[in-house]
Amino acid sequence: xxYRRNCEGxxxxxxxxxxxxxxxxxxxxxxxxxxxxTDLFMVEFSPMLIEPxxxxxxxxxxxxxxxxxxxxxxxxxxLDIFGLGTQKYTLYGPxxxxxxxxxxxxxxxxxxxxxxxxxxxxxxxxxxxxxxEWVEVSCAxxxxxxxxxxxxDFVATTATxxxxxxxxxxxxxxxxxxxxxxxxxxxxxxxxxxxxxxxGYLMEWGLS
Length: 208
Description:
By secondary structure, the protein is an all-beta fold.
């Protein structure tokens, strides 16, 4: 059997030799294209002022990458990863000690927005201001290792952001579907057999 994929002028092909293996296709963490650059993912949005002690839930969009897996009784293997559009990266933090992150800009939505299903998904983000001051927020940075993606009529993930000070916050993902009936994606780190410790991410270089 031959697996062949053509996406936006880029072609990938492999010969598959298998008796019982199955092909699984699902959305994956959006940090793999065009190569292995970073595990961090940043969503930038319009500045918001968050009152101290308040928790607010908003909805953002994030880019989709698609993973193709080969699954047999004893093993699962990553065959291919592809996506539509251009991948952009940015520096989060100072030039000497900051970190590279996959970058995406989104509008802020009060409810689940409509999306281009093959290009973007929905992120539910719960922002909690645990500080004693008003805080301006215009971006959220995540460690994609912790990302839990679900899919059905659309692709979705659920995340939290706890503001600790006016310049620092902790982000993490919640392992739950955004709406009932969604299927859980296979995580790339599971397929690649990389041991992962859930850790979240500390935004120590500012919230905007």
